[in-house]
Amino acid sequence: MKEPQDWKQLKLVGGQPCLDFVNTVDRDGDQYLQDWFRDAADVIGWAQYVELVSSAQAKEWLRQVQQQPAQSAKFFNQAIQLREALYRIFSAFAVKRSQAAEDLQLLNTLLSEMQQHLRFVAIASSFTWEWTEANQLEFILWQIARSTTDLLTSSDCDRLRECAGVGCGWVFLDFSRNRSRRWCDMEDCGNRAKANRHYDRKRKT
Questions:
Q1: What is the pLDDT of residues 73-111, one digit of tens each?
Q2: Which domains does the chain have, with CATH numbers?
Q3: Are 149 and 111 in contact (CB under 8 A)?
Q4: Rg of the chain, C-alpha, whole Å
Q5: 162: which strand partners?
């Protein structure tokens, strides 16, 4: 039996759910150094951790994936494909490169599915979007897709950055005053980079 994830150890530094979704893996080029997603249950656990779903809904989905391994494997594969496509989209945008057509197509396909489960409703004196069939496991991915488009069509998209730390690859929104933030977290990648620079200086003296 696998050990449960201690989600409190995963820092949420992205600034948006779609960015924190991408930040569930540490990257060194094409290699994964640490991946928080081992199966569908971990994706569900993460969604509960970032409050995309309630604990009651997460509990029900965990029961379902245990009883339906084929559905569980399909959902997990979709989640990983989405995560990788979003990473490439965000990483390219951060350095002003063009996004790959196949990554945008994957996102658009999911958005098309998502739109079938949203409706515009009146509430008292205002209006809002309401989800239908939010009990489907894919609801997690629909919310990630919506978070992505909300970000990339907002003024905050110009603040999108990829961490300069070696073996990281995390993405985040830079809200520093002069927009010069380089690290996902100064306590982690920032301090490692500072320590490496200090070591290099000492070695050259």
A1: 999 999 999 999 999 999 999 999 999 999 999 999 999
A2: 11-204 (1.10.3300.10)
A3: yes
A4: 19
A5: 171
